[in-house]
Amino acid sequence: MRRFLLIAVPYFWLLALFLVPFVIVFKISLSDIALAIPPYTPTLDFSAGWAGVRAFFSALDFENFTWLTQDDLYWKAYLSSLWIALISTAITLAVGYPIAYAMARAPEEWRPTLMMLVILPFWTSFLIRVYAWMGILSQEGFLNQFLMWLGIINEPLTILNTNTAVYIGIVYTYLPFMILPIYAALDRLDESLIEAAEDLGCSRLSAFWLVTVPLSRNGIAAGSFLVFIPALGEFVIPSLLGGSGTLMIGKVLWEEFFSNRDWPVASAVAIILLAILVIPIVLFQRNQQKQAEAEQ
Amino acid sequence: MQSTVFTPWEDPDAKPLIRFQNVTKRFGTFTAIDDLSLDIYEREFFALLGPSGCGKTTMMRMLGGFETPTEGRIELAGKDIVGVPPNKRAVNMMFQSYALFPHLSVWDNIAFGLRRDKRPKAEIEARVAEMLKLTRLEKFAGRKPHQISGGQRQRVALARSLAKAPKLLLLDEPLGALDAKLRQDTQFELMDIQEKTGTTFVIVTHDQEEAMTVASRVAVMDEGKLIQVATPDRIYESPANVYVADFIGDVNIIEGRATPGEDDTYAIDWAEGEVPLQATSATRFDKGQTCYLAIRPEKVTISTDRPEGAVNAVQGKVLDIAYLGNLSTYHVELPSGMVIKAQTANTRRISRRSFTWEDPVWLSWTVTGGVLLAG
């Protein structure tokens, strides 16, 4: 009985905070737009009894999902989001790995400080930090002023409101999520493994590729998923730093909800996004599980 | 039987494989190795023995190329190897933690070093198969290190370090992680493999029994210095000083003053009102010089009556008996309060033991039973 209760708690949590909202969103995605509050039909009316429930279910259809395939805006937005998320994950990995490596190799007494520095940005609101990037990247921003002062460029670069700004924003925001799991993996790495590789004829560099990288693979995978998953549905960064040409599904979703007030289509967009995300999330879970097994 | 006894260290013409020349290693202000010189010969099974922090691991790491000496020269086969990185040395090391690559199978672990040399595939396969056979691991070739037992892991580590047929194999506490029974079996296996491959082995250990079992010569170290380098029997039978006598095995140390007699015999005054003890010594002691008589417990005979004609005999009472099965160690308290350990083989059943706690007994030993040491 006690075991049942113990298991019931997380399941109840999942049910209340994931499954119920999901069912509601799914229901809305099958509805039609209406000028009403809430802005869709049908709504379930129990006062009409059994006939009311039947009428409710007969009014639901997959029209909105069909619509998503007809207008090329949506699949282009999905593809573009996938692409942007993929590229920014790769850049974050390229930037984050050396940082994590340096942290793991730093003297013991330095590590808590370095860890603190990585986590420190979380102390400021995410929104404020993204706004700060607007100030840095704009035409008259610090970056352009600095580059012109150095004499590298003569005219200010257009960075803000381009995809480049979106990449910068995503990499900056999600960098800690990449660094921390890789650092954890590298920190656990036994120094004698590297020495053994060198002893057996590896140069420093080949020992890194043959031992360090494979043994931090789980950290790399965890970090990549932690960046890729939220980046795919990212809305704030593309809408603040991106331009009109930046097509991301998070932005489309927002516009459907708040500009068009088309909740059913927006819900359908969200359901498809979730379906796309299920794949990396399942892969991420499997990676975590494998890592846990390997540590036993 | 071997026709010739293997003792290259006694041959003045023999060329050592490894030569430490006045090597000093400092870490900051701490001196780990202090002006140390040592020769190790080819095909030797050489043990570096000492308590933790005595510098034995530093010696090994300098041979492996993981540390550079602050001063001095280290030669391998006549060439100075100071500054040569680990991957450029014909030396391989078996790490204390084994350092097996967890992401590679047993087979790939053993092949790791061979692949780095870009050897032909067929040769690698043949060599790995040979190593697997040598260490009886054929059945486990496809397993990952975490899927095999501690003893098997130890053998994988050995196979991996031997695969490249190094001139010199370094073993850092190779049996430390194994339980006592397995350790004994593995010691003999190590000796067997060393003999078969003809590789020079240098083993680091803090376990004196292990060093004595496997090694052709043992170097006893303390605080970065070599105290004694000799064969196991010489280390045991004629230790250079009290430290070595005390570190290797069990020993009774009796402090006294020497009085030279005839034929290298010395009379040792060791306690007020007691008959002086007699001991022979090749080293000279002056009259009145402080000396230490080291007697192994197994060289002390215990009896109820004073043995007739015994040169050295003292009386005491049994304080404690440690029963070890095959042996019993008696702790006998002398009237002066000093405790002497005596060991006898239990050839009879324990119920027929002639003395028990609090019994008055006589301890005796011959004139050559003990070793006279200066300090």
Provide structural commentary.
The complex is a heterodimer of chains A (296) and B (375). Chain A has 296 residues and is an all-alpha fold. Chain A has helices spanning 2-29, 49-58, 63-70, 72-105, 111-119, 126-137, 142-150, 163-188, 191-199, 204-215, 217-232, 236-241, 249-259, 263-295; strands at residues 32-33, 40-41. In chain A, strand 1 (32-33) and strand 2 (40-41) form a beta hairpin. The mean pLDDT of chain A is 90. Chain B has helices spanning 56-64, 106-116, 121-134, 150-162, 180-197, 208-214, 232-237, 242-247; strands spanning 18-27, 30-40, 45-49, 71-76, 79-80, 91-94, 168-172, 200-205, 217-222, 225-230, 252-260, 265-269, 277-280, 290-295, 301-303, 312-323, 327-333, 339-345, 360-365, 370-373. The mean pLDDT of chain B is 90. The longest helix of chain B has 18 residues, at 180-197. Chain B starts with 17 loop residues before the first strand and ends with a strand. Chain B is built from 8 helices and 20 strands. Classes of the chains: A mainly alpha (296), B alpha+beta (375).
**Helix percent band of chain B:** 10-25%
Q: Within the CATH hierarchy, at the fold level, what is the topology of the largest domain in chain B?
A: Rossmann fold
Please give the domain count of chain A: 1
Give the name of the CATH superfamily of the largest domain in chain B.
Answer: P-loop containing nucleotide triphosphate hydrolases
Quick one: overall form of chain B? globular
Mean pLDDT of chain A: 90
Total strands of chain B: the figure is 20
Measured by DSSP, the beta-strand proportion of chain B falls in 25-35%
Query: Main sheet of chain A, how many strands, which sense, barrel?
Result: 2 strands, antiparallel
**Total number of β-strand segments of chain A?**
2
Structurally, how many domains make up the residues of chain B? 2
Query: What share of residues are in beta strands of chain A?
Result: under 5%
Oligomer: heterodimer
Radius of gyration of chain A: 24 Å
CATH homologous superfamily of chain A, by name? MetI-like
- What is the name of the CATH architecture of the largest domain in chain B? 3-Layer(aba) Sandwich
